[in-house]
Each structure stands twice: as C-alpha cells, then as structure tokens.
UniProtKB/TrEMBL annotation:
<dbReference type="InterPro" id="IPR036872">
    <property type="entry name" value="CH_dom_sf"/>
</dbReference>
<dbReference type="GO" id="GO:0016740">
    <property type="term" value="F:transferase activity"/>
</dbReference>
<dbReference type="GO" id="GO:0051015">
    <property type="term" value="F:actin filament binding"/>
</dbReference>
<protein>
    <submittedName>
        <fullName>Dimethyladenosine transferase</fullName>
    </submittedName>
</protein>
<dbReference type="InterPro" id="IPR003096">
    <property type="entry name" value="SM22_calponin"/>
</dbReference>
<dbReference type="GO" id="GO:0007015">
    <property type="term" value="P:actin filament organization"/>
</dbReference>
<keyword id="KW-0808">Transferase</keyword>
<dbReference type="InterPro" id="IPR001715">
    <property type="entry name" value="CH_dom"/>
</dbReference>
<dbReference type="InterPro" id="IPR050606">
    <property type="entry name" value="Calponin-like"/>
</dbReference>
<dbReference type="Pfam" id="PF00307">
    <property type="entry name" value="CH"/>
</dbReference>
<dbReference type="GO" id="GO:0015629">
    <property type="term" value="C:actin cytoskeleton"/>
</dbReference>
<feature type="domain" description="Calponin-homology (CH)">
    <location>
        <begin position="24"/>
        <end position="125"/>
    </location>
</feature>
Length: 125
C-alpha cells in the first residue's frame, strides 16, 4: 500500500463518504460471479481491504477477462501470480486494456495504480 498518513479535513470527509458507499452485498455478488466465471481460484475473505488485496496482483483480473474469450484466445498472456510489483501492475494494465477492447467505456475504467495502491475516488452523486 502507499505510504500515506491519516486523512484530515476535506480529505477525511471525502473518505467517509466513499466508505459509506461501499456495499458488502455487492462485493459478495461480484466475488460469486468471478468464482463462477473463472473456477479454480480461492475466494477472498470478506471486506473491502481483502477484496482489494485479492484483485491487487492482477491474477484474478487476468483470469476473469480471459474467461470471456474462447479457451486459449484470452488477451492476457500470463495469469501467473508474481511477487514483483511491476509484474502485478502489468497484469492489471493488461486487464484494463482488454476490458476497454471488450467494450467497457474508458470513463468507467480505473487506473492501475488506483487498484494497486487502494486509491478510492469519490463517487459522483
């Protein structure tokens, strides 16, 4: 995770709004869908931090986007886990490029560093 201190003032207020919008039920629905789609992967423990950690290395995301294509034709070349930050971030980037090619609007796609460093942006109301 990024080396950041606690939020104060407006940053704290924004973070509180973001935290209130987190939906544990949606997390469970997404987890179940990913597990059903990919098969053979371990589910995360419940909670937004654990869910983020589950996705952080790009392995699950790579397997997910590859599962939407015929076997052997997935856009993410390697879905092997890695302990190296640059490899993890590259897998996330491959997923994001593939998601855009699949039809996800660029405005709906997060930045690699946002997932990797657990950055949460304020949702518009």
């Amino acid at each position: 995770m990024a080396n950041r201190g606690p939020a104060y003032g407006l940053s704290w207020e924004v973070q509180q709004r973001i935290d209130k919008q987190y939906d544990p039920e949606l997390e469970q629905i997404l987890t179940q869908w990913i597990l059903a789609q990919c098969g053979g992967i371990q589910p995360p423990e419940p909670g937004k931090e654990k869910f983020q950690e589950w996705l952080k290395d790009g392995t699950v995301l790579g397997k997910l986007i590859n599962s939407l294509y015929p076997k052997g034709q997935g856009p993410v070349a390697s879905t092997d886990p890695s302990n190296k930050a640059f490899k993890q971030m590259e897998q996330i980037s491959q997923f994001l490029r593939a998601a855009e090619q699949y039809g996800i609007a660029p405005t709906d796609i997060f930045q690699t560093v946002d997932l990797w460093e657990a950055v949460r942006e304020a949702a518009e109301n």
